[in-house]
Amino acid sequence: GSKTTVMKINLLLGIFLLGLLCAEAGSESAANTNVSEVWFLPTVSFGQAIVKAAEGAQESIYMLTYFISGSQGSPIKEFYETLKQKAQAGLDVIVIAEFGSGTEKSVKYANMRFGEELANSGVKIYFMQSEKTMHKKMLLVDKKRVFLGSSNLTIAGVYGSHEMNVLIEDPTFVADAGEDFRDMLSKSKLAQDLKF
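Given the sequence above, the corresponding structure tokens read:
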């Protein structure tokens, strides 16, 4: 009866309003030149994508990561070699790695050893040393794209583990990620300022 008629009218009204919202959103996005794109990157695809992004960088590469380590394995070897080349070519390449009191010594010293190798090639290396563990994994390239996810930038993180990462190209999101990076940089330390 009347209850079914009311439900049908509400459903039709809801569909009509949804259509109006979609049409309005479509016209706004047509006028908006900021295109947002997000890609899901499982482990191997992530490794390939970060190499490609680093190779294509023209201004900057900023990285937050819990664990860094050199490897002779592909693709992580190519990624770090590209970071070194980009730093030597004059790009702003900054890596912030974990070195907090709650972090295993093996991770801290691996970060320190490989960080020194990167620094010798012109990469700016900083460490987070606070009571809180810095467990972020973020790669920001040219302030235009950001990679986020579970992968450490190690061979296991780009090849040997089951990981989940995303690549986001959205101006507002990337700007927010850049702000977070600058905040972490302001709290980080150079190797010579670390407390052992």
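The chain has a mean pLDDT of 85. Try to locate this feature in the token string yourself.
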